[in-house]
Amino acid sequence: MNTKRTAAKTAPVTTVAVLTLLGTLFSAPATAAPPQGDFTATGVKIHVSYSTTSFARGHGNPGDGYTWLGGQSNAEAVPCPDGSVKDHWTYVHNNRTGVEGYVSDCFIREY
Length: 111
Known about the structure:
Strands 8-7-4-1-9 form a 5-stranded antiparallel sheet, with no helix packed on it. A two-stranded antiparallel ribbon has the order 2-3. It has 1 helix and 9 strands; from the N terminus they run H-E-E-E-E-E-E-E-E-E. A hairpin with a 5-residue loop joins strand 5 and strand 6 (85-86). With 111 residues, the protein is mainly beta. The chain has one helix at 15-25; strands spanning 36-39, 44-47, 56-60, 66-72, 78-79, 85-86, 89-94, 100-104, 108-110.
């Protein structure tokens, strides 16, 4: 039995099409936005360093919102209003005032 085989015809591939495909496959991955959150108390001090005795650059209040910029573990332990103690401080940018600095994790929450 003879079967007739025909070559499949394809559209010519252009250089632009190949470069577009390669750019899609090998482009840099999208970076996620930094975490956001808010202050949990009124007048939360935003410090220069991760210590309650360091200079306060400003304050954060509920509704100001913050953008996470980093953190520091095993820093000064702070007694929280709920009775727990936390030794982690987060470096934040106050979204309303623009002030940046460290805040004890006792006084912020992430969205």
